Amino acid sequence: MRADYATPKGLFSNDRQYLVPLFQRSYAWGLKEWKTLWQDVRLLPELDDNRQHYIGAVVMYPTAATPTGVNKYAIIDGQQRMTTLFIMLVALRDVARQLGHGHLADRLTDNHLLNKYAVLSERHKLLPNQTDRAGLRHLTDAAPGVVVNQGRVADAYAFFQARISEWIAGQVARADELARLVLDRLSLVSITLDDNDDPYVVFESLNAKGLRLTAADLIRNYLFMRIQPDEQEQLNDQYWQPMQEQLGERLTQFVWHYLMRHGGNVPKSDVYFSFKKATERRPVPEILQELNRYAPTYARLLDPALETLRPAVRAALRRLHRTGLTVAYPMILRIYDKVRHDQAPESVLLDLLVVLENYSLRGFMAQRGTGGSNKSMQTLAARTNALDGQPTELLDDVRRYLATQNYPSDKEVWDALLNKPLYHHAGERNVRTKLVLETLETDLNPNETVTPDGLTIEHIMPQALTPVWHSDLGAESVRDHQTLLHTLGNLTLTGYNSELSNAPFAVKRVEFAKSNLSLNTELSTEVIWDAAVIRRRGAQLAERILLRWPSLAPELTVEGGGVMPSRAQSVRPKAVLLQGQRLPVRTWIEVVVVTLQALATMQPTLFSNLVRNRPTYLNQQPELLRSAAKVNASWYYEGHNSADGHRRFCRFALEQAGLTETEWSVETAEGEAG
After folding, report:
1. Minimum mean pLDDT range among 5-14, 101-110, 366-375
2. Which of 301, 312, 519, 531 has the fewest Cβ atoms nearer than 10 Å?
3. What are the C-alpha distances in Å from 174 to residues 92, 98, 111, 161?
4. Whether residues 495 and 577 fall in one domain
5. Does residue 542 belong to any structural domain of this protein?
6. Same structural domain, 345 and 366
7. Total domains in the fold of the chain
8. Statement to judge: residues 445 and 475 lie in one domain
9. CB atoms within 10 A of CB 277
10. Which domain holds residue 87?
11. Using H for helix, E for strand and C for coil, what is the string for 433-452?
12. Cα–Cα dist 626/639, whole Å
C-alpha cells in the first residue's frame, strides 16, 4: 500500500471518482461530528505560517480505469469524512453563487465536484452508497435554494450552508478565503492499496475506529467485497436490501440464530467471525439467496402479526413469545422455514411449539432455574437435524430429550403451585403468570375468546390487608397472607383491578358474579375466602394445569388429589430374567445395560437398529447424553429417565432383537414385574 499526505484539493482534483461501495453503511455523521469539523476550519486562520490541520485518514483501492480516463477508487475507510468534506464544498459553492460570485462557484463545480467532460455515470466525483446516492447527486446538480429530500446528507448540507453564510457575512473575499482554507489547509493521510493488499483485511483492522459497525455490517461488507462491482447492485437489491428493510437493527440477531439453526454454540460477540468460517468456501450469491430465504421467516418469528396465512401458527408464536424461550428460536427458525416452503407439514411446527411451551411453562411454574436451557436447545437443534423429514420421530425425540433437561415432575409442579409464589409484579414472571391464567380461562370457556389486553392479575386476598380481611382470615391472618398471597389459588383475572383493590371478599364476590370469565364465576360461589379455600382452589387449578401441560416424561401420576410416584418408580430391581438367565442388578439403569449386553450377543445389529429408531437413547459420544451409562466399549445409554421409561426401552430392545416380552422380566424387591 502507499500512504501520502493529501488535501481536499488534491483528492477532489483531476478526473477521479470515489465510490462508496454498496456494502458500506450509509452516511451516519451527525451534529457532533459536523460541529467538530467546522470548528477545525474556523481555527485554521489562527495557526502560524499557514500550517495545515490534520483531520484523519482515508483508505481506498483502485478499480479499473475507464477508456475516458476517469480513475475510480473504492473507499473502504474514511467515507464519512470524505462525504462530509464534499457536502461542505457543495454548500460553499451554493453560498458563493447566491452572493453573485459565479467564478468561485464554477471553479468548485468544474474542478472539485464534477468531472466536467466525463460521461454521465462518471460525472460526479463522489458517489455514496445506494441509500445516499440520489440525495447527494441532487445536491451537487441542483440550483441554489432547491429543497432536497430529508436525511443525514440533507441535514449536513443545511448545517454547513448556514454556518458558511454566517461566516462569509456577504463578503466575496471571505468566500475565497474559506475555499482556500478548506481545500489547501485541511490535510489527510491518503492510503491507496495495491494488488498485493487484501482490502477486507485492511477494512477489518480499521473497524475499531470511527463509528462502530455491527456484525451485520461486517458480514455485508465481507460478502460484497468478494464479488465484482458490476454484480453488487443487483445482488444488493435482490437479496440484502429486502432483509435490511424487514429486520433493520435485528439483522445481526437473525444471522446469529441462522448460524445456530442446526445446533452448536455461537457466542453473540463472535457472529461475524463464525459466519466467515461457515461460508468462506461458498459462492456469495448462494449465501445471499439462503439468507434471503430465511429472513422473512425470522421476521414472522419476531413479529407473529406478519404471519397472515397460518392463523394457528400466529397464535402459537404469540404464546411462545410470552414464555420468553428465545433460546429455542434457532431450531424454530429451521422448522418454520421448512413449513413456509412446503417442505414440512404445518402440524409439526404447531406440535413443536406446544412442546416448547410445555417445557418453558412447567419449568417456570416449578421455579426451575433457566441455567442450561441455552445448551439444551443447541443440543436439541443438532440432534434433530436428521429428523426434519420425519415429523413423528422428530417430535418424539424433542419430547424425550427435553424431559431429561432439568424438566420438573408433576409432583414438583404441583408442590410449587400450591406452596410457592407464582405471581411477581414485574418482568417475565408477570407475563407468564398471566398466560397461565388466560389459558385456564380459555380451557374453562372454550367458546369465548379471552382478550388479554384489558385484563390484569387480581389478588383475591389483597396485597394490603384491611381489618375486615384480618377478621375473615382468622387468627393466623398474617402468616397466611405471607405464605399464600402470590400463590396460584389466590390469583384470577379481572378488567377492574383498581376498583376491587382491598375490598372485602363479600364485595368482590358480587363483582365476580357479574364477570364474563369462568374463573370468576366459580369464585362467586364461595362464601368465605380464607387459607383453606385458597389451598383447595389452588389444588383444583393445579390439576387443570397438569392436564393442560402434561409431563413429557410421565413417570409421576396424580392420584387421590395429590401427586404420588407410580408403582414402577417405587420398587427396587434385583435381577433381570432373560431366557432362563438371572442377571443381578441394583438400579433401573443397570436393568437396561445388562439387558442390552445380553441381547447384543444374540443380535449383532441391535445397536444400529436401536439408534436408527430411538436416536435419543444410545450414542457413541457420551458428552452428548445428559447422564451417560456405559454399555460396552463403543456405546452409551441415556440414563436420565424414569423407571417406566427404562422398562419401556428394554421392551423395545426385545422387539428389535426378535424376542417377546414373555422371555424377559425384572425381579424386584416385591416380586417379579414384567
Report:
1. 366-375
2. 312
3. 11, 14, 20, 14
4. no
5. yes
6. yes
7. 4
8. yes
9. 12
10. 2-208
11. HHHHHHHHHHHHCCCCCCCH
12. 8
In DSSP terms, 127 is beta-bridged to: 19
Task: Please name which of 9, 8, 145, 22 lies closest in space to residue 81, comparing C-alpha atoms.
Answer: 8
Identify which of 535, 468, 480, 537 has the alpha carbon closest to the alpha carbon of residue 508: 468
Is residue 553 one of the residues assigned to a domain?
A: no
d(CA 638, CA 400): 10
Q: Which residues contact 151 (CB under 8 A, 6 or more apart)?
A: 27, 132, 135
Contact 202, 59 (CB under 8 A): yes
Same domain as 90, residue 36: yes
Cell of 262: 442446526
Q: In angstroms, rounded to a whole number, what is the distance separating the alpha carbons of residues 89 and 499? A: 65
Amino acid (one-letter) located at 26: S
Looking at residue 145, its pLDDT comes to 52
Q: Which three cell numbers stand for residue 265?
A: 454454540
The three grid cell numbers given for residue 208, joined into one nine-digit string: 475499531
Residue 555 counted as domain residue: no
Burial class (CB in 10 A: 0-12, 13-18, 19+), 57: middle
Q: What is the mean pLDDT of the chain?
A: 86
First to last CA, the chain: 79
**Same domain membership, residue 497 and residue 474:** yes
Identity of residue 117: Y
| CA contacts within 13 A on the Cβ side of 458 | 25
CA dihedral 311, 314, 320, 324 (to 10 degrees): -160
pLDDT in tens, 304-362: 999 999 999 999 999 999 999 999 999 999 999 999 999 999 999 999 999 999 999 99
Report residue 346 as a C-alpha cell: 404445518
Amino acid (one-letter) located at 385: N
Reported residue count of the chain is: 674
Q: Domain containing 591 — which CATH number?
A: 1.20.1380
Which of 154, 180, 208 terminates a domain? The answer is: 208
4: β partners: 190
Does residue 563 sit within a domain?
A: no
**Statement to judge: residues 233 and 357 lie in one domain:** yes
Phi, psi of 97 (to 5 degrees): -65, -40
Helix (H, G, I), strand (E, B) or coil at 163: helix
Question: Which one-letter amino acid corresponds to residue 363?
Answer: G
Residue type, 507: V
DSSP output for 83-109: HHHHHHHHHHHHHHHHTT-HHHHHHHI
